[in-house]
Amino acid sequence: MSRSLVSVVELGGYADFGPLYRRLGFDPETVNSGRRALSTVKQLQPAAVVAEFNYQFDFRDRTSALESLLALTQGMPDTRVVVIYEPREEPELERLRQRFPSFTAIPRPVREDDLERVLRN
Predict the structure, then answer these.
(1) What are the structural domains of the chain?
(2) How confident is the model at residue 57 (pLDDT cuts 50, 70, 90)?
(3) How many whole angstroms from its chain centre is CA 3?
(4) What's the CA gap between 109 and 26, in Å, rounded?
C-alpha cells in the first residue's frame, strides 16, 4: 500500500528524490509553491511532507511561508515533516522550531542517505 508524500520544491538545487520516495513506499506529489502545498496537504493528508525553509527577512510577522504549512500539519499527528535548510539560516530556523518543534531538519547539501534515514524512522 502506497502512502502519499508531498514534496515542496520552491528553490531546488538538489537531486530529484522521487525515486527514493517511491522505493520507500511513498506516492510522491511535487508542488512548487507554498500556497499549492497548503491545498495539496489539506487534500491528501500525507504520511510525509518534505519542504524547504526559504527564509524571507522582509516578512513582517513570519520567517517564511513554511510557517503556514507547519501550522496546518500540527493538526495531522500522523504526518512527518522534513525541512531542508541552508546552514547559514539556522538561527532563523531555530526560531521557527520554537513555535513548531515537531519537524526534522536536514541541512543543504542534502544527502540521499540522510533523507532516507529520516523518512524510515
Answers:
(1) 3-120 (3.40.50.2300)
(2) low
(3) 16
(4) 22
Residue with cell 527514493: 20
Query: How many CB atoms sit inside 10 A of residue 109's CB?
Result: 12
Reference 5, options 67, 51, 70, 36; nearest CA is 51
Residue type, 120: R
All three cell numbers of 70: 507547519
The model's pLDDT over 105-115, given as tens digits with 9 standing for 90+, comes to 999 999 999 99
Amino acid at 106: I
pLDDT band at 92 (very low <50, low <70, confident <90, very high): confident
Q: Which residue type occupies 4?
A: S
Strand partners, 84: 52, 106
Nearest Cα residue to 54 out of 100, 32, 85: 85
